[in-house]
Specification:
The chain is an alpha+beta fold. The chain is built from 2 helices and 5 strands. It has a domain of 59 residues. Strand 1 and strand 2 form a beta hairpin.
């Protein structure tokens, strides 16, 4: 019960429940239909951290830039991939 400005009590209005859609498929989306999109097309990178590490948004593997750091600080199985900064500097150097 709630009171209004005049001190009269009234029942609280009922909240409507939202219709939440349930996911019908647990199979991840695949462009190549092989389940190996990252191996064929390449990883979808998350934001690079200051430490030179990131993760793949699709497969979740840990990645690091070998020019930023020698190895991934937490995962010895992490894959090396060059970050945008070092990739761009390599392209600029090759164009000169």
């Amino acid at each position: 019960m709630t009171q209004d400005l005049w001190g009269e009590t009234s029942p609280r209005p009922q909240r409507r429940r939202r219709n939440v859609a349930t996911l019908t498929s647990t199979i991840p989306y695949s462009i190549t239909e092989t389940g190996q999109d990252c191996e064929i097309i390449g990883h979808t990178l998350n934001h690079w951290s200051v430490a030179g590490t990131t993760t793949c948004l699709d497969c979740g593997v840990n990645l690091f830039c070998p020019q930023c750091i020698a190895q991934h600080p937490n995962d010895p199985q992490a894959e090396p991939i060059v970050c945008e900064q070092h990739e761009e500097s390599a392209v600029n150097h090759a164009a000169i």
